[in-house]
Design brief:
The protein is of the alpha/beta class and 337 residues long. The protein is built from ten helices and twelve strands. The strands form three sheets. Strands 3-4-5-8-9-10-11-12 form an eight-stranded parallel barrel, surrounded by seven helices.
Amino acid sequence: MTALFSPYTIKDVTMKNRIVMSPMCMYSCDNEDGLVNDWHMVHYTSRAIGQAGLIMTEATPVTRQGQISPQDLAIWSDDHVAGLKQLTDSIKKYGSKTAIQLGHAGRKAIYDGDTLAPSAIPFDENAKVPKEMTIEEIKETIRAFKKGAIRAKEASFDIIELHGAHGYLISQFLSPLSNKRVDEYGGSLENRFRFLKETIIEVQAVWSGPLFVRISADEYHEDGNSLSDMVTFSSWMRELGVDLVDCSTGGIVRTPIDVYPGYQIRHAETIKKEAAISTGAVGLITTGLQAEEIIKNDRADLVFIGRAFLRDPFWPRTAAKELDVEIETPRQYKRSW
C-alpha cells in the first residue's frame, strides 16, 4: 500500500485514500438560482466513480450577496438543501466522502447591489467599491455561515470547509491589504482574525463533524500577510478545534506569482510542522509520483487535485497505474480498468 492510497480518518470520517477533488467553481447553475442540476450530478459523481477519497463541491455562498458569480451553487436558502442532498447521496453511493466549501466573495462578488467588505477598498481599478460592513452586517454574515452549516448537515455532507483564501471575504478580513478597520475587527493580527474566529465558533455550535479552513498562506506582497502570519492564524485555528488547514496562496491583490509544479507544497509543510495541525496541499499537483512524495514524506496529510481532475475524472486510477498499485475497480469497468 502506498501512502497516497492509505486511508485517512478525521473524527468519525474515514476517507479511503488521501486524494481530494479540490473545490472549483463550475458556473453552471440555471437561471441564477444556485440549485443543483444535471451538470453537477454528472460532474461530481463521475469523480466518485473515479475513486476520489473526498469530493469537495465548489465555493458555495451563504448569502446571495456573497456569490462569486450568479451561476454558482448556493446554500443561502432551504430551497437548496434537497438538490445538495441528492448530490451527496449520489457521491457516497460510489464510495467517496463529501465536503462543501462555505464561502462569501465579499468585494469580489458579482452582484447588482452593494458588495460587502471589511473596508471600502475595491479589488482593483475595474472593480466596484464595496460597502464597509457595519458591526450588524458582520454579525448577520457570521449567522449566515452558521445557517449554511445547518443546511450542509441537512444535506448530509461529511465535512465542511470555510473558504478563507483567494481574496474572498474571510481572506479580506485576515489581510492588512484589504482590512483597514479601526474597530475590534481590524488592526492587529488578533483583531483581523476575529471574523474567522467568530465564524468558526458559530459553525461549531451546529456542526460536530470535521472542519477545514482554506487559507492563502502567502499574499505575495510586502505589506500583506506572510507565511509566518499564517502559521500564527493556523495555530489559533487548531486551538479552536479546526481539523485541517487547506493551504493555497494569493488572490487578495493582483500580483505576479511564480507558478510551477507543487509551488504551494512548502506552505502546507511549514504550517503542518510549525502550527502542529493537519494540512492539505494544493497547486499544480498533477502526477501520482508527486502526490505520493507529499504524503510519504509527511509534507501534508491530503492532496487536493484541481485541474488534473477536470482533465481526467479517473485521476486516482491514473495515479495508481503510475505507482504500480491496485485500487478498487468499479464493477461496470472491470473489463477495462
